[in-house]
């Protein structure tokens, strides 16, 4: 099963595709859609939609998983983020993909065992789980977050729910083959 994970943003949208068919997740493609902030907001939404539609047509994933926006300080920013999420969801829905949404806490907990993990911790764990070399081209925080969304969906699908760990030590104890020094 190919899973497309999306970390939506009105300036940068991260994407990551993993192959979860063999039981071990492997990265297929990841990166970012960087939007020109001098473009109008509707033009940026169209660019998100078009870029993700092209990505879906190229890689033909089986499902799309996306991070849900949560309450923020600035209502205008939240509206823009919600619209970016909608553009990404429509790209998938128009290609007949199922769409699943996850909260940032669900995603972080699924990947790190801690729902309050930092972006750096998420990036480290995603790199470790997917066996990506340090300094891999295109592996930004936004791409790592998108891959984390895909991994969260894979965990949910293969276990019926997100795997739960009581902390870093329990994750390592249960996954010695997924952690390297």
Automatic annotation (TrEMBL):
Catalytic site positions: 7, 67, 142
Record text on cofactor binding: Binds 2 Mg(2+) ion per subunit.
CDD domains: RuvC
Binding residue positions for Mg(2+) 2: 67
Pfam families, per the entry: RuvC (PF02075)
UniProt xrefs under Gene3D superfamilies: Ribonuclease H-like superfamily/Ribonuclease H
The reaction(s) this protein catalyses: Endonucleolytic cleavage at a junction such as a reciprocal single-stranded crossover between two homologous DNA duplexes (Holliday junction)
Cofactor: Mg(2+)
Annotated positions binding Mg(2+) 1: 7, 142
NCBIfam families per record: ruvC
Quaternary context: Homodimer which binds Holliday junction (HJ) DNA. The HJ becomes 2-fold symmetrical on binding to RuvC with unstacked arms; it has a different conformation from HJ DNA in complex with RuvA. In the full resolvosome a probable DNA-RuvA(4)-RuvB(12)-RuvC(2) complex forms which resolves the HJ.
PANTHER family in UniProt: CROSSOVER JUNCTION ENDODEOXYRIBONUCLEASE RUVC
Family stated for the protein in its record: Belongs to the RuvC family.
Protein name stated in the entry: Crossover junction endodeoxyribonuclease RuvC
Species of origin: Longibacter salinarum
Taxonomy of the source species: Bacteria, Pseudomonadati, Rhodothermota, Rhodothermia, Rhodothermales
């Amino acid at each position: 099963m190919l899973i497309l994970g999306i970390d939506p943003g009105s300036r940068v949208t991260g994407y990551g595709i993993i192959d979860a068919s063999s039981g071990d997740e492997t990265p297929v493609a990841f990166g970012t859609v960087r939007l020109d902030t001098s473009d109008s907001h509707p033009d940026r939404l169209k660019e998100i939609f078009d870029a993700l539609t092209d990505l879906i047509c190229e890689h033909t994933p089986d499902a799309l998983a996306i991070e849900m926006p949560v309450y923020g300080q600035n209502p205008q920013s939240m509206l823009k983020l919600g619209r970016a999420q909608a553009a990404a969801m429509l790209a998938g829905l128009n290609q007949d993909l199922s769409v699943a949404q996850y909260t940032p806490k669900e995603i972080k907990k699924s990947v790190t065992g801690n729902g309050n993990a930092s972006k750096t911790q998420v990036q480290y764990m995603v790199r470790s789980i997917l066996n990506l070399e340090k300094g891999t081209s295109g592996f930004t925080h936004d791409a790592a977050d998108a891959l984390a969304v895909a991994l969260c969906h894979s965990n949910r699908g293969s276990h019926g729910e997100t795997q739960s760990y009581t902390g870093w030590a329990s994750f390592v104890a249960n996954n010695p083959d997924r952690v390297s020094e």
